[in-house]
Write a structure and sequence with these properties.
Length: 463
């Protein structure tokens, strides 16, 4: 902590630290970081940090600036943000097919949203870096044995044994390398023909095609194909990069700050610092303390950043976050991802919208209808009800209409696989009794591909 901060700390302003000008990639170390693993060997961790610091960046500063400009459009109501992907990526199920299928459902949802809203969808994956998880309890006890909770594959492993639950710094390197291969494949898929709109009909997977939403999607895709054919017949070339390629960005919760710091690089063009682990990073609901290490780290990086806002956040907390994270009041810099719960959104969201609107920050408002709606089913599975998910999005839209602010996007956990983790959805109904059939998540329950597409149609109706 610098001398200025120490002086200001005496005054106990909530922004005593965050207002300090002396930011460096490691200045977060003087603040309390919640939800961190207890690393058994600090020397090992330091060795890994040094190694990471020499490795190439995963994304470029210019790409993150491009995303920031697109998010500014979202803030202005001229685009819609679709942020989606795994709750936690896995080192074990890491295949080209899974990456392709996740990308494909996001592309399908984007097509549905764009077609209905008439504005572009900004596609951001929870992918290529989403390996660390905050947990409600730091330890877990089974049959009298207490071990560290599973914190994501970047830190430890899921099986309940001492060896697998022990944090292992080498996993940070493995997370980096898996992110690099994932990103490589995503770039190939999105720029190399797979995402060409002429193939919009081929994106439907077989198990989705049989569902209601899959059939609705097929109709819409056929209309797009006909429109492209018509344009070509009328002499208007559809030979634009926008038709042949998709823009796709990566994001994750930047929880493990040693990893993020090691990938933070100074942009040679502007002299600014960028966290080059992903295009966008966000702060989780459990680590958004104004005087905490995560806010300190985030305020100095120039990427577009997000912050989760849950039902316990006060309007004052959120305005404080805006001041700390968006001091230059740049449209698109800060995305506030609200996750109130379907039963709390009507009461909880309006005072926050009003306060932020009055503060003058041009934030992107996104709705995460997943994390406030988790419950344990009779079968013991952690699940979410599709109607609660839609209900929170509907409450989010209603609150924004009322406040005169922009409902800018959604943030969801999904997979391209035919899993049974969330109940409901008219298309491929998952009943509570089905949960055990294909419950594959390592952490939170995700929407399957047909539930994801159905959600896109339901959101499109609200738009
Ligand atoms: C998450 O997005 O996976 C998450 C843990 O969310 P939150 O921080 O909102 O609880
Ligand atoms: Co989650």
């Amino acid at each position: 902590m610098c001398d200025d901060c120490k002086k200001r700390d005496g005054a106990r302003s909530p922004f005593a630290y965050t207002a300090c000008m002396n930011w460096t990639p490691d200045s977060w170390r003087a603040f309390e970081a919640l939800q961190q693993p207890t690393w058994p060997a600090m020397a090992e961790l330091e060795g890994v940090e040094k190694k990471l610091n020499t490795l190439p960046p995963l994304v470029f500063a210019g790409e993150t600036r491009d995303l920031r400009r697109r998010l500014a459009k979202v803030a202005a109501g001229e685009a819609f943000l679709l942020q989606a992907g795994d709750c936690a990526e896995s080192f074990d199920s890491f295949t080209a097919d899974q990456i392709r299928d996740k990308l494909r459902v996001i592309l399908q949802m984007a097509v549905v949203l764009t077609y209905s809203s008439g504005v572009p969808a900004v596609k951001v994956g929870r992918i290529a870096g989403q390996f660390a998880k905050p947990r409600s309890k730091p330890t877990e006890t089974v049959d009298g044995m207490e071990l560290p909770s599973f914190l994501g594959h970047m830190v430890n492993d899921l099986p309940f044994s001492e060896g697998e639950r022990r944090p292992n710094a080498d996993r940070l390197l493995q997370a980096y390398h898996q992110s690099a291969s994932t990103l490589n494949l995503l770039r190939a898929f999105t720029k190399g023909g797979f995402a060409d709109l002429h193939r919009v009909q081929a994106w439907n997977q077989e198990f989705v095609g049989n569902s209601n939403s899959g059939q609705r999607y097929e109709k819409l895709a056929a209309e797009i194909t006909r429109a492209l054919r018509f344009m070509e017949a009328a002499g208007v070339s559809s030979n634009h990069p926008e038709i042949h390629e998709a823009d796709f960005f990566t994001s994750h919760e930047a929880l493990i700050l040693q990893y993020e710091e090691a990938l933070t690089r100074k942009d040679s063009l502007t002299g600014d610092w960028y966290d080059c682990s992903a295009h966008m990073v966000w702060i989780g609901e459990r680590t958004r303390q104004l005087d905490g290490a995560h806010v300190e780290f985030f305020r100095g990086i120039k990427n577009p950043v997000g912050c989760k806002v849950g039902p316990t956040a006060t309007a004052e907390d959120v305005v404080g976050l805006c001041e700390a994270l968006d001091p230059e009041r740049e449209a698109g810099r800060l995305t506030l991802i609200t996750r109130m719960g379907h039963d709390k959104v009507a009461e909880g969201l309006p005072p926050i919208l009003k306060a932020v609107k009055e503060s003058g920050h041009q934030v992107v408002w996104a709705c995460d209808p997943m994390h406030g709606n988790t419950y344990t089913a009779d079968t013991g599975h952690k699940t979410r009800n599709f109607e609660h998910v839609v209900g929170e999005v509907a409450g989010f839209f209603a609150a924004h209409r009322e406040a005169g602010t922009n409902p800018g996007g959604i943030h969801v956990e999904l997979t391209g696989d035919n899993v049974t983790e969330c109940v409901g959805g008219e298309a491929a109904v998952v009943e509570t009794a089905d949960l055990s059939k294909r419950y594959e998540t390592m952490c939170d329950p995700r929407l399957n591909a047909s539930q994801g597409i159905e959600l896109a149609f339901r959101v499109a109706e609200l738009l």
